[in-house]
């Protein structure tokens, strides 16, 4: 299987890349990451040629098209994080987290990628109270 992992140089994404390769060593892993404040290639350096790394942005169709070639699944971690920062720069959060995900989905559909897994955090729920009646 060939898997594209967006945001794979970030803290959680890179740990997932390492996990995946430990459990599926024959799979081909392609990582797409813009290497902004949250991404660090050093998180992946030890994997060497076990992965294919592409520096690119999910909002850029020109970066996505080659990254999606031959992919069987996408695990989508790429996002602006630290929600408190969104108050000061809502545009970048909207561009990446909403528009970028939309563009990625459109290009994945065109490339006929059969599986798409969107990873998120508890931040999407805001400050809702959690109790035994809260739906999963």
Please tell me about this protein's structure.
The chain has 136 residues and is an alpha/beta fold. The protein has helices at 11-23, 61-68, 90-110; strands at 2-6, 28-33, 51-55, 73-76, 115-118. A 5-stranded parallel β-sheet has the order 3-2-1-4-5, sandwiched between helices. Helix 2 packs across helix 3. The model has no long low-confidence stretch (mean pLDDT 92). It holds the Pfam family Epimerase. InterPro entries: Epimerase_deHydtase, NAD(P)-bd_dom_sf. It comes from Candidatus Woesebacteria bacterium GW2011_GWF1_46_13.
Quick recap:
The chain has 136 residues and is α/β, with parallel strands linked by helices.
Helix content: 25-40%
CATH architecture: 3-Layer(aba) Sandwich
Shape: globular
| Residue share in β-strands | 15-25%
Number of E strands: 5
Radius of gyration: 15 Å
Number of domains: 1
Topology order in helix (H) and strand (E) letters: EHEEHEHE
Cα distance, first to last residue?
30 Å
The CATH topology corresponds to Rossmann fold
Class computed from helices, strands and strand pairing = alpha/beta
Under CATH at level 1, the class stands as Alpha Beta
CATH homologous superfamily title: NAD(P)-binding Rossmann-like Domain
């Amino acid at each position: 299987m060939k898997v594209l992992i967006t945001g794979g140089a970030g803290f959680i994404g890179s740990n997932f890349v390492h996990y995946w390769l430990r459990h599926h060593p024959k799979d081909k892993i392609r990582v797409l990451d813009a290497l902004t404040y949250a991404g660090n290639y050093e998180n992946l350096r030890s994997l060497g040629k076990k992965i294919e790394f592409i520096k690119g942005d999910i909002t850029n169709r020109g970066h996505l098209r080659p990254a999606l070639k031959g992919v069987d699944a996408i695990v989508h971690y790429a996002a602006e994080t630290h929600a408190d920062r969104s108050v000061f720069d809502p545009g970048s959060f909207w561009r990446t987290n909403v528009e970028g995900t939309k563009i990625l989905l459109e290009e994945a559909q065109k490339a006929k990628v059969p599986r798409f897994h969107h990873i998120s955090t508890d931040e999407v729920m805001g400050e809702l109270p959690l109790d035994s009646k809260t739906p999963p």
